[in-house]
Amino acid sequence: MAQSKTKKRNPRTLNAPKAAPAAITTESAAVGRWFAAADSWLSRRTEWVVWAMVAAGFGLRLARAATNYLNGDEAMTMTAPLQHGLENVYHAMLAHPHGPFPNFLLHFMSFLGSSELWFRMPSVVTGALLPYVAYRWAAATFGKTAGMVTASILAFSPALIILSAQVRFYMIQMFFLAVSLHCLEQAFREKSAGWMRAFGAASVMALLTEYMSILYIGAIGVYALLRILNKELQPRLILEWAGTQAAAVAVLLLGFATHLHRLKGNGGERFAQDVWLRGSYYHREAQGLWDFLRGATDALFGYVFSNAALGTWMFFFFVFGVALLLWGKGGVPGGRRLPGLALVLPFLFTGAAACLPLYPYGGSRHDAFLAIFLAAGIAVAIAFLARWKIVVLLAAAAWLVPMWMNAAQHHVLDDIPQVSKRAQMENALAYLSTRSPKPRVLVADQNGSVTLNYYICHGEVKDWRALKPNMTSYRCGDYRILTVEDWGIPMPGLSTSFVLARRVSPDLFPDPAWGFSVAFNRFADLSVSQENSAVFGKLELLRLPQR
After folding, report:
1. Helix (H, G, I), strand (E, B), or coil: what is residue 543?
2. Going by DSSP bridges, is the β-strand pair 527-529/513-518 parallel, antiparallel, or unpaired?
3. pLDDT tens profile 409-423
4. pLDDT range class, residue 22, cuts 50, 70, 90
5. 423 and 397 in one domain?
6. Which among 190, 197, 512, 518 is least buried, having the fewest CB atoms inside 10 angstroms?
7. Residue 424: half-sphere exposure toward Cβ, Cα within 13 Å
8. pTM of the model
9. What angle do CA 36, 40, 43 make, to 5 degrees?
């Protein structure tokens, strides 16, 4: 009598949902399909995503540019464009080491408007468009996802937003540099003489905007030469490229002969090298070469990302991105390695210039153009880690960009918005105009003097005189201006200098005289108005003692 043996089962298992693993698998597959569909949809519309970044970046730049009055550097920049006649514009621009193109652009703009925002618009517009042009270059060279990350870094960098909202030439220069990069890559890809000529034209425009663009032209020239040696160009295109290089050299030589040689070794250059940009120049007696380059590079990344700790992390991302490119794993079509050098060479050229010393390399606006290459290298690393999934990168950007902007640290060379409001300048000028008796002399340092030159003289200076010690004077509207040739002098120093000036030229400075100071150590939004003194933000006015 045989009985079949049956294994007893646990009663709890009799009612277990046997289909659960299949359901989970189905749900995961559905999520995976949705994720893939979303990534594919965004991939086909990446350019629209970048344009959305451009629009957001434009809004941030415009809001910043409309808020503040011109700082001393901006007012100084406007000195040449506000002159009457092109010849006077040219002669006035020779006092500063910038190219002629923006000076003449702002001069012609002055016929159509005169507000701070109007004169800042070239920087606002080019700063907003820069991410799109850089995207086109990076997307074609390093892949679409890397291009989008490059655009997001350039669009939302707090430092670049601030720089785009000022009357400076760096964003215009960066725009032309990005255009030239895009044109060069297109020339190599399409074997096109037209793109190569466009590369040359954009490079020359960058040089005419900022002469120091020669650092970029030299670096990218070496990169292009390596590709030529790699037999990527036909002989006729090699001649086209050589023509672009010759044109750039000719422009630089002309600029040096007519302009830059006048500034070599002058007080402004020595002051930059030894004082306010000392950390951006190599001083052999003070530090080792490696220590300088390491510190300057760390400062550069900290400046672009407006946060020292974040900048250090991004430096490692940049190194990782360049390593991926040199390894052939960075997403470059065909696994080409040479594009990795295009990101490194501009840093090497700028660092070498700081060691000579010819140009600063470090954490200031003077090296902002390196942000294009910095952003692209970091973008390659981030795109690789995200497995080139655009949907992942967009989600990360939506979460991280607001945190990044909130973590931005104030840079010592940037204005503090709450003490630089346009209304504060308007109140200060109105206060002066309502004094009784009316002020006849205004005493200021260089910072205050260029500010008065813009807001009262509108660039028109008369009866200029050199006084000793270290003082100059000129007529500006209804005022006689006494300038103490130094930057950042407190009010007691202005009062002492005024006493000395009266001893030199007793009849030149009648009563009443007022001191006009743009303080560097005021951070509160104050508005205090008394009979013989007033404070409006960082603007300080004080009636000086009569004789």
Report:
1. strand
2. unpaired
3. 988 888 889 999 999
4. low
5. no
6. 190
7. 25
8. 0.91
9. 140
Residue 463: count other Cβ atoms within 10 Å of its Cβ: 10
Question: What would the two tokens of residue 456 be?
Answer: 């009262």
Please check whether residues 172 and 56 belong to one and the same domain. Answer: yes
* Average confidence score pLDDT of the chain: 90
Q: What is the DSSP string of 227-248?
A: HHHTT-S-HHHHHHHHHHHHHH
The mean pLDDT of 498-517, rounded to a whole number, is 91
What pLDDT was estimated at residue 14? 46
**CB of 136 closer than 8 Å to CB of 338:** no
State how far the alpha carbon of 104 is from the alpha carbons of 82, 100, 118, in Å: 10, 6, 15
The C-alpha atoms of residue 331 and residue 496 are separated, in whole angstroms, by 64
What's the domain range around 498? 417-543
> By the 8 A CB rule, do 449 and 479 touch?
no
Q: Is residue 23 assigned to a domain?
A: no
Beta bridge partners of 515: 443, 542
Are 445 and 393 in a shared domain?
A: no
For the segment 177-187, the average pLDDT, to the nearest whole number, is: 96
For 352-367, what is each residue's pLDDT tens digit?
A: 999 999 999 999 999 9
467 DSSP β-pair partners:
471
